[in-house]
Design a protein that fits this description.
heterodimer; A: 206 residues; mainly alpha; 9 helices; 67% helix; disordered C terminus; B: 273 residues; two-stranded antiparallel ribbon; 2 strands; 68% helix; globular
Chain lengths: 206, 273
């Protein structure tokens, strides 16, 4: 968590959503690694900017849903997870997340995760599972990768990432039988489009 | 759609090529007959794929005509029609109409306004026929527009929304295949949306426009796209499709990478210069 994400983006906390998005895009243009290949300083700066932007977005989202009164805690069937984080030594904050995941309540699992401040490898592992269950493929992959990066020797984390990557490999193997396409654009399509555009002009002129 | 769902022509036999074209030409003729000549400017291979895919699943009875076409006056062309060609032509008009309307509302392009007007009447006719479907499509598109305007940093959010839209299009009717088709359409839609974001990333960054992958670097894209296509082909395998499999698999395993490969070649070429 960044102490003052607004400062990173250079906007006041009172800034509108639009102003924040604008500030983010301006900074992305300045630091994104695709526009500045090989510049490690810029890449570092960009990941800080990304983290700040994500943090502001998720903060505002949860504020909004609290305002409108549909927090999950109101109909929490398993109860007792805590933003309060009163932990007994034998109680893990991830217990309720596990229960939700097991029952297939992925959205609720994700919500509990969002209340946990400290994001360690275990947090990323459970987030990967919850996101995978919801069909959030990109987040699931990224969080599985992060969990493994943070704790490379944990076999549980590695297994989840390997499972995801295995499915990709199966696709790639079959893909290789066809080979990648070489010719960029079928010329005929272009010819057809040009023809009908020309025809359209004729219609307009008449 | 965006012209990503095409075949890798080099790996098709001559017969398959002709078969593929006959779907495309059939769609072109159907567009002209149903919605006026002008609607042919909306012709694309993505929709031809929809026809091939649904026709193979439903084993439709096809009418094949061989005749000349103004585009190729010297050569005889094959035209393949069935009930799905009609459906795809209708859906194509729905998407085109919304596309122009969005361009007008978001960017104020006056030409898009006139283009939308051009298709408005046809759209209304189709919307009264497929009332529920058109309502679902337009609600997906307005949700997507809100997501993009809010600057959502999580790419899964808009990708799932676009996936939902494609699942509506692939779910031809309510029957035993609906669920499988929805799953297939959803995963293909996610892939198309993310592929489009990949290829637009640089220009979007430069122009300070929304891009769902702004928080990522292009080094990560290939593995993401492969996973999305893995989902899509898994959904395909669950559907009992027993004809045109080679053509469909050519598209799903190779053709969908055509524009990605072309774009990469271009950047590589520029770097080596």
């Amino acid at each position: 968590m960044i102490a003052d994400p607004y400062k990173v983006l250079g906007v006041p906390p009172t800034a509108s959503d639009q102003e924040i998005a604008k500030a983010y895009r301006k900074l992305a243009k300045k630091y994104h690694p695709d526009l500045h290949p090989g510049d490690e300083e810029a890449a570092k700066k960009m990941s800080e900017i990304n983290a700040a932007y994500e943090q502001i977005k998720s903060m505002r989202k949860s504020e909004n849903s609290a305002d409108r009164g549909y927090g999950y805690s109101q109909y929490d069937p398993f109860g007792n997870y805590g933003a309060g984080q009163q932990q007994r030594s034998d109680y893990s904050i991830f217990d309720s997340v596990k229960t939700y995941l097991f029952a297939g309540y992925y959205q609720q699992a994700l919500h509990v995760l969002s209340t946990i401040q400290e994001r360690n490898a275990e947090w990323y592992y459970y987030s990967a599972l919850a996101n995978a269950g919801l069909g959030n493929r990109i987040t699931a992959l990224n969080h599985a990768k992060t969990a493994v990066q943070m704790e490379p020797n944990n076999p549980k984390y590695r297994r989840v990432l390997e499972q995801m990557q295995y499915r990709g490999q199966a696709y790639q193997q079959q893909s290789e039988q066809y080979g990648m396409p070489l010719s960029a654009v079928n010329l005929c399509i272009n010819a057809c489009i040009t023809f009908y555009l020309a025809q359209m002009c004729c219609l307009c002129c008449r | 759609m965006f012209g990503y769902v095409v075949a890798n022509m080099e790996k098709l036999t001559d017969e398959e090529k002709q078969h593929y074209r006959s779907f495309y030409c059939g769609l072109c003729k159907t567009l002209g007959n149903r919605h006026g000549k002008i609607s042919r400017i909306t012709l694309n291979y993505d929709m031809a794929f929809l026809i091939i895919f649904l026709s193979a699943l439903y084993k439709t009875e096809n009418t094949i005509e061989t005749k000349r076409c103004i585009m190729h006056p010297l050569k005889l062309q094959q035209f393949l029609y069935n009930e799905i060609t009609d459906y795809a032509a209708d859906m194509n008009i729905v998407l085109t109409y919304h596309n122009y309307l969005d361009d007008w509302q978001d960017d104020g392009r006056i030409l898009s306004f006139y283009a939308a007007k051009l298709f408005e009447q046809e759209y209304k006719r189709i919307a009264s026929k497929y009332f529920k479907k058109c309502a679902a499509i337009s609600s997906c598109l307005s949700e997507l527009s809100d997501i993009e305007k809010s600057g959502e940093p999580n790419p899964d959010v808009p990708a799932n929304c676009f996936g939902q839209l494609m699942s509506e299009i692939f779910a031809l009717r309510e029957d035993e295949h609906t669920e499988g088709l929805r799953a297939f359409g959803k995963s293909l839609g996610r892939f198309i949306y993310i592929m489009d974001a990949c290829l637009d990333l640089k220009s979007d960054l430069k122009n300070e426009r929304y891009n769902p992958l702004a928080g990522f670097s292009s080094a990560d894209f290939k593995s993401i796209l492969i996973l999305l296509m893995a989902d899509c082909t898994e959904a395909y395998k669950k559907l009992p499709i027993e004809q045109d499999n080679n053509l469909i698999e050519n598209i799903l395993y190779s053709g969908v990478w055509t524009r990605y490969e072309a774009a990469n070649k271009k950047t590589k070429g520029r770097q080596s210069q």
